[in-house]
Amino acid sequence: MMKNYNNGLCTKKGEMKQDPYHVIHKLPPGDSPYVRAKYAQLVEKDPEAAIVLFWKAINAGDRVDSALKDMAVVLKQQDRSEEAIEAIKSFRERCSKQAQESLDNVLIDLYKKCGKLEEQIELLKQKLRMIYQGEAFNGKPTKTARSHGRKFQVTIKQETSRILGNLGWAYMQQTNYAIAEIVYHKAQQIDPDANKACNLCLCLLKQARYSEAKSVLEDVLQGKVSGSDDPKSKSRAEELLKELEQFGSFVYTSSSPQLNLEDAFIEGLDKLMNEWTPFRSRRLPIFEEISPCRDQLAC
């Protein structure tokens, strides 16, 4: 049973100020199934008890949005990702419209954990489709995100590039480097960063296009893209450079005609994203910027 007491803090006058226990432990107030589940999760560090209580909260209609998402996260931590996926699929209809986007984000992480690449790719394409249709961020140009306890604003432009980066990585796991390259190129056009640049370099390296790979890598090593000063990105760039140096000045030439970026992007994404709906006039301005040649993202 959750403890119900206050913790004392001294004020300037030497008086004792009572802070509620739930504030100290970052728990929601009250004594409902969801609150008890959070107590089991955060204070008692008892994931099994937390999962049972989250289920009770969902069945009781107690903060279902948070209960389902939190339970899925705990299940993932317990290496029960398949159960978490089924739980979200079964109970997301009980959640609000505002919660669906965050549930999709949890699902993508779960698919990644389970190695379900096709499901991960399909959901990422669905999120891109929502952005194109103006349905992401609940129709707003930015959203508030959290990372390591900090809040920050994310723009549609940043989110589009992030999703394309994740899509590119999923294709890389399928060893479909040509398509991953196309997706990474578009992500870098929208909002470039060092991590995606390194992934693009790897795509090119896997296709034996060493000169192009080195050119992409030099932007990171010379600090021309965001995140170049991050120790992990810098270390990875240096490792990739060493790998490229093994091939010297070798230049790859293909016997098949090479498509330029725009043609490749149009043809590749037309095939891969054929579930996208037709053009809608209410698409967000960012798509006017990134699709000058036909509707490159409206496949």
UniProtKB/TrEMBL annotation:
Q: Where in the cell is it found?
A: Nucleus
InterPro entries assigned: MS5/SDI1, TPR-like_helical_dom_sf, TPR_2, TPR_rpt
Which keywords describe this protein according to UniProt? Coiled coil, Nucleus, Repeat, TPR repeat
At the top level, the lineage of the source is: Eukaryota
Q: Where are the TPR repeats?
A: 161-194
The answer to keyword Coiled coil applying to this record is: yes
A Gene Ontology CC term for this entry?
nucleus
User: What is the similarity comment for this entry?
Assistant: Belongs to the MS5 protein family.
The protein in question is named Protein SULFUR DEFICIENCY-INDUCED 1-like
Q: Which organism's genome codes for this protein?
A: Nicotiana tabacum (Common tobacco)
